[in-house]
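Chain A, query sequence.
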Amino acid sequence: MTPRKVVTLSMPEKVLREINEIALDQKLTKSELFRMAILDLIGRIKWERASRFGRKKAREMKITEDDIEAIVHDFRKK
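Chain A, predicted structure.
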């Protein structure tokens, strides 16, 4: 098992009630629910960073959306 650290959080009671309801409904512990939520957020942030980088590079290289399909097709042929 991966080593774990305990983290203390504070939040409004209303949010905690929702967390408890969702955890119960999904048959998860609150820790599992928090881990899933945080990992999902981290994944979305990483995706957005990669997307911004790709858009920046596309602008620098003057690649349009219409060019992408041909580029991908050429790459897959290799």
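The chain has a mean pLDDT of 94. Residues 30-60 form the longest helix (31 residues).
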